[in-house]
Amino acid sequence: MPRLEVFADEHMQHAYGIFLFTSKHPLVRKLKRIAQPSVHGHKTWSSSFLIMDYLQHFPLSEGERVLELGCGWGPASVFCASQQGAKVTGLDVDDSVFPYLDMMAATNDCRVKPLHASFDDLKTEQLSRYDCIIGADICFWESLTDDLFKLFRRAKKAGVKRIILADPGRSTYEALLQRCEKAWPQAFSHEHWYALEPKRFEGQLLVLNFAA
Ligand SMILES: C[S@@+](CC[C@H](N)C(=O)[O-])C[C@H]1O[C@@H](n2cnc3c(N)ncnc32)[C@H](O)[C@@H]1O
Q1: Rounded Cα gap, residues 64 and 130, in angstroms
Q2: What distance in Å separates the CA atoms of residue 133 and residue 124, rounded to the nearest whole number?
Q3: How far is it, in rounded angstroms, from Cα 86 to Cα 98?
Q4: What is the rounded average pLDDT of the residues 6-24?
Q5: Is 71 near ligand 1, meaning CB less than 6 Å away?
Q6: What local confidence, expressed as pLDDT, does residue 9 receive?
Q7: Considering only CA atoms, which of 146, 157, 156, 79 is closest in space to residue 119?
Q8: 203 lines ligand 1 (CB under 6 A)
Q9: Which of 22, 117, 32 is nearest to 75 (CA)?
Q10: Looking at domain 12-209, which of 3.40.50.150, 1.10.3720.10, 2.30.40.10, 2.60.40.1250 is its CATH number?
Q11: pTM of the full predicted structure?
Q12: Closest residue (by CA) to atom 4 of ligand 1?
C-alpha cells in the first residue's frame, strides 16, 4: 500500500518516491515563458512510471552510471538518482527541456547531468561511460526506430550492460522490438507492464540484458 501524500499544492503529484509537476503548476507556467520544448518534451509522459516500477523489482546498483535517452523533464532520471543512488545523465536533442529537468532534480534533492545531443550523435566511446541506458516514450517516429537500433548496437559494443525502454506500444516501438529480438535473442526480453502511481498506466517494456 503506497503512503498517501497530501499536497497543499494541487498541481503536484507524487509517484514512486518522487515529486512531479503537472503542466498547470505555476512554476511550469512561468518556465514556459522562457523555454518551450518542441519535440514532445513538454510534460511528464506516463511510460516513465513503467521504468520506475520495473526498477523497483530489478533495481540499479548504488553508483551505477545511467544514461536516460530523450529525458524530457526527466522523471525517470530523477527516480534513478534520488531513489536508487545512480549517477545519472539526461540526454535530449531539445535543450528547452533542461530547465524543467533542473527544476525536477532540485525539487527531489538530487542531481542529473544534462547532455544536449541527439541519439545519432552518441559515439561508442561516449556510450562506454554508462552501465545502463533507459528511455521512456522515445520511439515515436519511423526514423527513431533506426536511430535507436543503431545506438543500441553501439552501446553493446561499448559494454553497456542493460537497456530498458518503456513505451505505450506504438508501431514504431514494435518495429524496434522485432529488430532487437532478431539481433540479440539471448539478451532480449519484452514485457507488458503496469504502473499504479500516480495512477494506473499500462504499457510495454523492452529489456536488453547484455550482461547475462
Ligand atoms: C515523448 S517525450 C518523452 C520525455 C520523457 N522521456 C518522459 O517520459 O517524460 C520524447 C523526448 O525525446 C526527445 N527526443 C526526440 N528525438 C530525439 C533524438 N533524436 N535525440 C534525443 N532526444 C530526442 C524529445 O525532445 C523529448 O524530450
Answers
A1: 8
A2: 13
A3: 19
A4: 85
A5: yes
A6: 73
A7: 146
A8: no
A9: 22
A10: 3.40.50.150
A11: 0.95
A12: 72
